[in-house]
Amino acid sequence: MQETENLNPEFMRVKGKKQHYRRKCRGKQFQQNPAMGMVNFPNQSLRWLFSFLILCALALSASSLTGKICFAVPEIVSEATSGAETEESIFNQGLTQAEKGNFLEAENLFRRVLAINEKNPQALKNLGLVLIGMNRHSDALEALEKIRADYAREPVFWYNLGQCLMKTENYSKASEAFEKSVSLDPDDAESWLELGRSCLRLNDLTRAGESFEKCVVLSPKDPRGHLGCAMASLIAGNTIIFEKELSMLKSLSPEAAAILDNFRLQNYPDSQQ
């Protein structure tokens, strides 16, 4: 049988005499209901459309790294040089431009600092942040990896690293980064949300559900947590939790609830109560 494209990222292909899909699901609360299955759309582009719509919904008020950016002046011991720019003065110029949102100019200034001192952790950190601000996540990842040891105890570092890894589709490493972030700051709803998203990408429905639930507890009015819980429970076949979260989502974000419900009707018609 000719191998077909797996269009649903929440499922994994099993090779054998017959191709079929199985859910990688563990635990009790998000245990799979084997009676539920995917609908085979006659038009594959339709499935892509609904996948795109639900991803848009998952990005509802998507957490932005700008909320995690914290530019800071480094502790640089330098001697003032008359008539010449110092490492510290160039850095401060970059900091000013970054705070104004002039990321390209800030990047150039931080790179000038690194030309003087390639191991300056604050310059590398802020370079990574301005690159994130310009959606250059691969470049940002390179900068952040160089300061892993310097900021290993800062949860925001692991959050930013995880976001870059998500953008570069390294979901396994992203999940590890978010796990580190929540271990250092268990009250950060954003990190729990992103951990849930990364686990959903890895088809780890149990951990995804737990993470989204934690986000809901910490930020009950944020529709993104409820949307994540609903998605994890829908894929796992837990209609009770799905209906509960869908109901909550309707009061918080009717538009996102409508997209999710439409996705359910098209992909999981047997889940309707």
UniProtKB/TrEMBL annotation:
Alphabetic keyword roster: Repeat, TPR repeat
SUPFAM superfamilies per the UniProt record, alphabetical: TPR-like
Repeat positions for TPR: 87-120, 155-188, 189-222
Cited Gene3D superfamilies: Tetratricopeptide repeat domain
Entry superkingdom: Bacteria
Record bears the keyword Repeat: yes
Protein species of origin: Candidatus Wallbacteria bacterium HGW-Wallbacteria-1
Protein name in the entry: Uncharacterized protein
Alphabetical list of PROSITE patterns matching this protein: TPR, TPR_REGION
